[in-house]
Amino acid sequence: MAGLGEGRPTKRRAGADAGGLAVADPRPVFDGGAVLGARCTTCRYPVPQRQLPWCPVCYGELVPERFAATGSVWSSTVVAIPVGTRRPPFGLAYVDLDDGPRVLAHLADAYVLAPGSRVRIVDSDEGDLVAAREVR
Fold first, then answer.
1. Diameter of the chain by CA atoms?
2. Which residues have a Cβ under 8 Å from the Cβ of 117 and sit 6 or more positions away?
3. ChsH2 C-terminal OB-fold domain location, by residue (predicted)?
4. Phi, psi dihedral angles at 16 (to 5 degrees)
5. What is the pLDDT of residue 125?
6. HEC profile of 13-60
7. Is-contact 73 106, C-beta < 8 A?
8. For the chain, which domains are there?
9. How far is the CA of 6 from the CAs of 2, 13, 15, 75, in angstroms?
10. Whole-prediction pTM
């Protein structure tokens, strides 16, 4: 029996580590107090990735954009199993940035936040955004 993917095309590229083409990192980038991404010039849709060739909604042109590092939690959880180099427990949250897209962020502490809780993106760790509760 042939191995998975042998002799037929797959949707995933092998990446430079496996002798294939370099694959762009789709994670948002935190830079100097802002999250870098893009916004469509036609429909104004915010996109957390800067590498997309066109808007995923209307296929319009994307231009680079800096989004606020503050937002509201859409959903969060605490992960109780190891994932990659991360050791449990660690928190994850989807954050709706105030003027931008929804992004996935690791939480500075392992806790679950209620939807609507205010957070701030404070850092980037191993390429992942890190958020902390906003103190009011």
1. 61
2. 72, 73, 76, 133
3. 68-122
4. -60, -35
5. 85
6. CCCHHHCCCCCCCCCCEEECCEEEEEEECCCCCEECCCCCCCCCCCCC
7. no
8. 25-133 (2.40.50.840)
9. 6, 13, 17, 38
10. 0.79
